[in-house]
Amino acid sequence: MNVSSHEEYDYLPIGLHWDEGSPQWNNKGDNAWQLIATTMVCLQSVPGLVILYGSMVKKKWAVNSAFMALYAFAMVLLCWVLWAHHMAFGKQMGPLVGQPHVALAQVFLIGPSGNGYIPMADYVFYQFGFAAITVILLAGSLLGRMNFYAWMMFVPLWLTFSYTIGAFTIWGNGFLDKYIIDYAGGFVIHLSSGVAGFTAAYWVGPRHSRDRQHFPPNNIIHMLGGAGFLWLGWTGFNGGSPFSAGQITALAIINTHLCTATSLLVWLSLDMIVYKRSSVIGAVQGMITGLVCITPGAGLVEPWGALVMGVISGSIPWYTMMVLHRRSAFFQSVDDTLGVFHTHAVAGLLGGVLSSVLAKPNLLRMMYGPKHYAPGLFYSFFEGGNFIMSLKQVGYQIVGAGFITAWNAIVTSLICILISRFVNLRMDEEDLEIGDDAVHGEEAYALWGDGETLARTRRLRLPPRLPSIFRRLV
Description:
Layout: H1 28-56, H2 62-89, H3 106-109, H4 120-139, H5 148-171, H6 186-204, H7 209-213, H8 220-239, H9 247-275, H10 280-294, H11 303-327, H12 329-332, H13 340-358, H14 361-368, H15 377-382, H16 387-420, H17 429-434, H18 436-439, H19 455-458, H20 468-473
Domain Ammonium transporter AmtB-like: 32-445
Pfam families: Ammonium_transp
Transmembrane segments: 32-54, 61-83, 123-143, 150-171, 183-204, 216-234, 246-268, 280-298, 304-325, 337-359, 394-419
């Protein structure tokens, strides 16, 4: 993400070029691709995760889950342009953060970006898409019980005091910028969202006991549609990170889809071998872990490396989610609704470490320029090179992961404790029993009449031993 330029830009004032709308420094091809990539990243959140979350939960939580994602997308955009962008990528205020500043001035937005032959507006909006999806991914741990008013406060606070710190330290000239390989956000986005989501889930508390025991998707076909937006949108997620339509972009895109397909098939195969069934939800989880794992090294590894990462991302997170999670008292004590810790924190950590093992030397130079990061440990060992420096790079990756983990766990805890002083983090038991109708006064599906709610059914208490088929009908 932190691209080093290979050439000196020949900047000319806009007014001195015959085409005022496209000055000499602006490459129209790169600009067009970046706008497309940014749109694809945003589509991952809206409608991608809106549909995925709204479909992957019980019917009674469909509206609330989708609306948490939609609200976060809007709130993050306002915070991003008013102060957060400069905190993540602006003038250094310290080793952890940049100086808060408004990113709305015309002269700033239509001026050249330092990350390619594109306007700064492209860079600001692309990075917003990353920030927004990070917060929305975090929400996956909290579905089905978080007080919406607490969520409204949580989003701007977490963006400001957690996300911007991770982005600045690794991408924005912070103290880890020169040491950590993170092509498109394995640490900044996925490890942080997985750790923060798990931490927030601890403070918010669990879902209603019946929801935790039985939480089927309300619409698997729509769930697959949301997953499709997420998968194909990752073309822009990883393809936009070089900020140009070049060779690294093309390689990153094919690697992204190779790793994802491999991971999905490995997860599906393990489900079929161990549980004797082909789970659609499992396939979606395998798809997500593949997307996450390839992200920190998408443009830096060869296609065979992407396949290796796909095998690992489809198996290790499967084990932590499907086996370790069920056996561990630690994991059982925290209600992570969609398993975001496994699909994002575990897969993001794997991708970050594997990137330092499999990053090819010439691809690192093409992306970041010379004298930046040590080549992958594999190439130093088998093709000659500075093995010690490559081993150090692996160590740097682990240290970076440790910092992101610790920062997000501590800051997320402090934010949750602060919010709890003003509003309850978790809905009360009566509202948890009802769901969307209690929280928003709206329901996802019209199942009778023209969608009117029957007052007598809103607070109906079902006998605990009622047959499950009748429960679903009710």
